[in-house]
Design goal:
By secondary structure, the chain is an alpha+beta fold. Helix content is 28%, strand content 24%.
């Protein structure tokens, strides 16, 4: 049953924020280049459907499905330290802890649509949000 004046669309009571398409991050360990320079600060953009489909045609991914995340991250990481470019070869040579961090970060910004998490203080039980993007464990 439809009510008079109702459009049927759900309205979001929150004010609309501009769409963020790139998110900063800080790697837990950092990528070490050939010169020994450690690169930790970077940025990742939102993935497109093409970003998720193209790697499926890659022979490396067909031979080893675990390689999918390496190819995918190589497409969506837009900046890492002072490196001139980031590609799947860069991701392939990262520490496992940094790869796990980036996989989680990718899920946060693409599946959930934001990098904020609702948390509650274990002492006073007050609820609040924390920003996960660009921060490292133990830093505020």
């Amino acid at each position: 049953m439809r009510r008079e004046g109702s459009t049927g669309a759900r309205q979001d009571p929150r004010p609309h924020e501009p769409l963020r398409t790139e998110f900063a991050f800080e790697l837990p360990r950092g990528f070490v280049d050939e010169a020994g320079t450690v690169h930790r600060s970077g940025a990742m953009r939102l993935a497109t459907a093409r970003d998720e489909l193209v790697p499926l045609r890659d022979v490396r991914v067909r031979e080893n499905p675990a390689y999918l995340s390496v190819v995918l991250l190589g497409r969506v990481i837009t900046r890492l330290g002072t490196l001139p470019s980031v590609h799947d070869g860069t991701v392939e040579n990262m520490f496992a802890s940094d790869l796990a961090f980036l996989q989680d970060f990718y899920r946060q910004i693409n599946a959930e649509g934001h990098t904020r998490a609702a948390v509650a203080c274990p002492h006073c039980e007050e609820s609040f949000e924390v920003e996960l993007a660009g921060s490292r464990l133990g830093e505020s």
